[in-house]
Write a structure and sequence with these properties.
7 helices; seven-stranded mixed beta sheet
Length: about 250
């Protein structure tokens, strides 16, 4: 239902851009489009919504859910997909990277692998609830995210988790993390940097970018909170904001 609504809105926004440019003026291609990135271990589709200035050099990636039993961020991602497209920002949204886990209310994917232990960052074999898979990027969902990050090179990536109600100091620019915490009224804390994590891999891959974890509170988010988190994401990427020097 969400994808049909976004696709319809994309067509209308694209048409509006054509008319706006009828006089020959140069305009940014503001709009939305939906991309099928691939399929999960159990064959469920994994999609991304691109919204905003589609040729902007500044890109932000938002992943609503990587652990299936931590799905509150999906609602925030869907809100972003429905909000007016931001200007001067190419915003990419994956509402749900782990649809098999969400369907089963389980941490892992359809094969029981913890996707946040399956990235190349200091990967090693783990078992049990934190099963890291037989090797790094063994899972289709992890490979989908890896390909998209390499393609986009986002300056900011936000990965939603639950249930600690904090912004993790994940190894990127701490000023960016603190800014998001201020915008949302969350506290900042430094969690353990786990082997095979998505943000660890992103920050190691591109030290000039910042990928960080937002641990949402437990339970279902009230509408006001959804709005607050969604607005914080677009505000964080405003070109007028200066986050200070990167970490030494």
């Amino acid at each position: 239902m969400l994808l049909r609504a976004v696709a319809a809105a994309s067509a209308l926004v694209a048409l509006a851009a054509v008319f706006a440019n009828a006089g020959g003026a140069t305009v940014d291609p503001i709009g939305r489009r939906v991309t099928l990135l691939g399929r999960s271990a159990d064959g469920r589709p994994i999609t991304a919504i691109e919204t905003g200035d589609l040729d902007a050099p500044r890109r932000t990636l938002v992943v609503g859910c990587i652990h299936g039993n931590e799905a509150a961020g999906v609602v925030v991602a869907e809100r972003l997909a429905h909000d007016p497209p931001p200007h001067e920002l190419d915003l990419w949204i994956i509402p749900d990277l782990n649809p098999d886990g969400v369907a089963a209310s389980s941490r892992g994917n359809g094969r029981g692998v913890d996707l946040n232990r399956n990235f190349p960052y200091h990967w090693h074999r783990l078992y049990g609830i934190y099963d890291s898979g037989p090797h790094a990027l063994s899972e289709p969902e992890s490979r989908i995210a890896e390909r998209l990050v390499i393609r986009l090179n986002p300056q900011i990536s936000i990965w939603f988790h639950q249930h600690l109600d904090l912004v993790d100091q994940s190894g990127g620019n701490p000023a960016v993390e603190r800014r998001f915490a201020t915008l949302t009224g969350m506290r900042v804390a430094r969690l353990l940097h786990e082997p095979g994590s998505a943000v660890g891999w992103e920050n190691e891959r591109d030290p000039a970018a910042t990928a960080f974890v937002v641990e949402l509170p437990a339970g279902t988010l009230p509408p006001a909170a959804v709005t607050r988190y969604a607005h914080a994401i677009t505000a964080l990427a405003e070109p007028s904001r200066r986050m200070g020097a990167h970490r030494p």
